[in-house]
């Protein structure tokens, strides 16, 4: 910030240097912008994507960034990745491949929401180990949505059949009491319990009215019952959180791990302890524990956790469960044999996954080594765009016409997807939402707010090591909710590294938990792209994600703290200040 013009009493212009004060003003202005946007995102006073445009309005007005600089933050490499993945998702849904996979998975796992959600979390976490978190969430969510709708429609079909059966009986309550016993009888009697002094038809009508009332009070008739709505919320958050948790396990699983590895290897080139294998051994147990505890928490939070119902292996399925399974099987058979378009889509999906995994696995050279002249140029978005273009080129079916002679000839072909179909699937609101997060992160860095936050960490040096780790982990977890994960880790690594050196602690003791906690962005839809993707399906409100995500955040930080004082200590000899770290001198400051 340059000198400021003022007019003195003598009539002359005087120049005052306002460097520090102007900088602090910009910090306060950026903090105010951050506060306003956070409140709007929490309260949904404006649509989320409109709120995400506020940095483009407020930063230029406060002089933090120019309008051109802010605008450039709204379209990044992530958006190209999203475009390619949406091409795949469009083809999957157009040709009903997701429905085939969904129905098959339900037939294998069963319709119990608890085991179904655990199955989805496990498969999503595994995919996220090798693919980007965003790609995994974008690809799995259509399948999850189809599964949820199939289970709900199956239950609706069963209840409709039961209603028809009940209405055809003359003495319904008596027949049910005689023919059904145990818990199943009690459940049915609750649904069709007649009012004293009225006929059983009155009881049936009362039951229908209650069902309509329940469905009418749940998001504008979108769900039959509250339990259906809760199941949809559970499934969505399972995908968002498991895609993030799975990314912890490999260096290539998420960008924050890659940024840490790059920073660490540049600052400590003599240390050869961070590689694909050591990272996997360190983080895999933590990810497994976090995944299981998160599943238990989400299941209890939305649907309750009935151990007796879940773990009674010898209990025969109820009539309702049998009917749901039969309906699901019938729907699967309606799809018929797999078609050419589904096979091509599945092959392209597998090719995309293999190209992502083999680009730069870490433990061996990937295909990116073929372009050694341009290191780092090709990313996951390059693969996504390549496969995405193929969906517009590969023919799905031939277009034929009949000539005047009666001969049928092919004159053109229809691709797997068209541009109009792609546009209908592309979540432009999510693209703006994530872009707003990038703009906010850039503004925090440009204004100096990020440095101000970092300087406040200096007094941590006088605290016990475990407390330093806990505070830094909680700070990172809080900051990453409103700033992008890569921006958070990029900001804090240069601050935490000299802090560890100054207090004579192994740098990994502080850097590892901070890096892992950077991924714990579970509270807000804008905290990371997987949250935004599942939020776009319309089942969740912001407060749903805040309440559920707070529990997952606590679980994540607790498990990371446990790991840092148990199995991770002998792996990296954390209790010893290493020789590869710079020697302590009086000039070293945090």
TrEMBL record:
InterPro entries (alphabetical): Na/sul_symport_CS, SLC13A/DASS
Domain of life: Eukaryota
Matching Pfam families: Na_sulph_symp (PF00939)
Compartments, as annotated in UniProt: Membrane
Membrane topology: Multi-pass membrane protein
Ranges annotated as spanning the membrane: 34-62, 74-92, 112-131, 234-260, 280-302, 338-357, 377-394, 465-496, 508-527, 548-569
Entry keywords, A to Z: Ion transport, Membrane, Sodium, Sodium transport, Transmembrane, Transmembrane helix, Transport
Main localization of the protein described in the UniProt heading: membrane
Family: Belongs to the SLC13A/DASS transporter (TC 2.A.47) family. NADC subfamily.
Protein name: Solute carrier family 13 member 1
